[in-house]
Design goal:
The chain has 136 residues and is mostly beta strands. It has a single domain, classed as AOC barrel-like (Beta Barrel), CATH 2.40.350.10. The chain contains one helix and eight strands; from the N terminus they run αββββββββ. Strands 1-2-3-4-5-6-7-8 form an eight-stranded antiparallel beta barrel. A hairpin with a 4-residue loop joins strand 3 and strand 4. The termini are far apart.
Length: 136
């Protein structure tokens, strides 16, 4: 019950009415041999077309059936930090962009995720200020 409350009360922030909301996919592939701190690569599709390296720090709780994960996507243009709340038993969860650097400084986004083997498959929406839309 507490886990459901924690997931439902994450700070999913509404987008400002002047921001354009666009669909996005983010797919990260990891080597889990160094669990709980793993690394790999990522690609995106839809409104964001970038790729690069990624790290994910997994913080299991609830007897290992749930986890809070911190994902950092790294490109030559900046970084994107994502927080995830995952149900490891069911292989799904939620994600939210909590920070960006470089040309991703004003990027916001959130959505759902699935966890096929060695992969984090995130789908959702992103939004950013008009001035930054041409930088990715």
């Amino acid at each position: 019950m507490l886990s459901m409350i924690a997931i439902s009360t994450m700070s999913w922030k509404p987008f400002h009415k002047h921001h354009k909301v666009k669909p996005v996919t983010i797919t990260a592939v990891y080597d889990f041999s160094t669990f709980p701190n793993v690394s790999g690569t990522f690609t995106t599709g839809g409104a964001l077309s970038i790729s690069g390296t990624s790290t994910m720090n997994v913080h299991p709780y609830n007897n290992g059936t749930k986890a809070h994960c911190v994902v950092i996507l790294v490109t030559s243009k900046g970084t994107i930090t994502i927080h995830q709340q995952c149900n490891l038993a069911a292989n799904h969860g939620r994600w939210e962009i909590v920070k960006g650097t470089g040309c991703f400084e004003d990027l916001k986004g959130h959505g759902s995720l699935t966890m096929p083997p060695n992969t984090e498959a995130m789908t959702g929406v992103i939004s950013r200020n008009k001035e930054s839309e041409d930088h990715d």
